[in-house]
Amino acid sequence: MALVEVQPKAEVIGLTALVVSALWWRTRWVPLLVLLAGMGWALAYQGWLDWQQQCDRHWLQRKVVVDATVRAVQQHAHYQRLTLHGATRSDGARLRGDIWCYLYGDRRLRGVMAGDHLHGALRLHPPHRRHNPGGFDFAAYCRAHHVVLLGAPVGALQSRADPTLLATLRQRVRDALRAIDPAPAAVLSALLLADRSRLDDAQWQRFSASGTAHLLAISGLHIGMVAGWGVLLAWWLLTRREAWIVALPVRRCALLAGVVLALGYATLAGWSLPTQRAVLMLAAAAAAWWLRSRSHPLNTMLAALMVVVTLDPLAVGTISLWLSFVAVTALIVWGARQESVPRKGWRGAARGLLWVSVVATLATLPLIAGAFGRFPLYALPANLLLVPLYGVWILPSSLSAAVLAMAGWSDGAHGLLLLASAGVEVGEWLLACFYQLPGGSWWLPRLPWWWLALSGLLLVTAGVGWGRRHRFRAVVAVGCAVAMLLLWPERDVTQTAWTVWDVGQGAAATLRFPGGAVMALDAPGSRGSRFNGGTTVAEGLRAQGVTHLDVVAVSHLQADHAGGIASLLRRVNRVGELWLADVPENRAAKVVRGWRRMAGRVRWLARGDVALVGGHRVRVLWPPRGATSSNANNLSLVLSLDLGHGKRLLAMGDSEAPVERRLVRA
Description:
By secondary structure, this protein is α+β, with helices and mostly antiparallel strands. The chain has a six-stranded mixed β-sheet, with no helix packed on it. The protein has a five-stranded mixed barrel with strand order 1-2-3-5-4.
């Protein structure tokens, strides 16, 4: 969800704390106290950071002239975002925190890189979250990234090139990625540069629905893979000569080489927050092995967690940390209970990979359900296929290509990137197959914290029972936990509920009728973007306990009303009908053909038609069938909904004065 970074709700963190407390309450009370102290430190740090990042009102004027250094550059499909550090006003005042500066269209700066200096006028405002139930807390997201203000330039920006060496090397990798197809290039950009901005919504949904979104974030899995390759290569090189084996501590040298290679990978990725945590975890594990510590592996894990929270207290509020912590803790506990002798050969390796995937998937299931609202039904087979594919094929070849690109050998880099792209396309095909299976993209309504806690306790019970060889009880407990997550019913309303969503520029609304019928009217946004009005409406409905739509009515095809329709259709379990005005413009639109594959049925409506939603009559007032106009607004679908008890609702779309006059005369 990543994989975008999602800020978990308090109940998700509380659930994790309860499970962790249950594991160590009776025998290890000191780690529990350390955990609680870490949470307290995180809350205190967050309060201090809020105070530290306060800015005076002079930063919020209509035009503020600043000098700043570019810390990072992100190229999105519709805009460019610059992270500005050390912003200083013309009167010498310095901002405590960073600025996200957005540039659209022709205002984008060509060739700008991290380390460059900018001078110009900006219009700034503090970040805020939209007032939608279940909405993403954008203000908290900005705070976690130490961003204080958002803005856009007023006039032209002057830039002075002074890129860092790292920025220059990363730019060479970006240039090499531009020479391959966009879809695999977006995935490889996420793997190499921690830049997921090039991924479109359809790609995100396939990874998320299959439980493989972690492959898009440079986290513990990738750092561990790279370190493992470094250990294997160093071991192979150091064992080529017998004299080296005798004279050198081969194991320690190989381990050191793995850590160094992982550090290089993290540097190429720009040291994003998940990467920093993964490197700290790897360093803790390597130090424990190097020093031959006799402490329990859980103590090593807790020590690494303590270091992460100490250096980055706001990590307590990120779901990625808790997912990693719960998964690794479950694997440690499960591994400690295995008494059988490890089986050698490919069968033993396959069996080990299978059990690791099963344990990690089940342990994180309540967290995924609570934070992301997904039930990855095919997570186990998807991970069994894609993790080796990425670890053995895609990641080594793409990293080798990055090294060649940074060294200036573009031809060799291009060849290896084509090899990595072929692996990405194989993975995309597998994900598409899983996505199209029954239940391949299953959404859950917002579950209460106590329901998640019960399912988590059932999974803990299953793990304990399996370790004590109560296999039948363990299987029953897992089945009950899965059933609890899947069978939570949608919520109904006692009277018609009309919701207008805060989606910025554009319009989006929903109607919920007693009996469970749900109707959506429009969803704006930029087509292909991951966050738009469709995302907002779907997440809000899920927070209200709804995961289906009986009707999606699209007034007209302009982006401020229809740009987020595809995102909305992807984020619900079922769509009954898609309503569109029966005009040539809609019939010929390519985007409508894509919607038809996701909706149950397309219904073409024109003036005089009557339809029913949840037992309520809907009359179509405009447009006439087959109407044409040079103004797309005047082809908007105009609906009159009878809500009962003498109340009616008129949905006008963007119809302008000529249509209004025609409707009044009629």
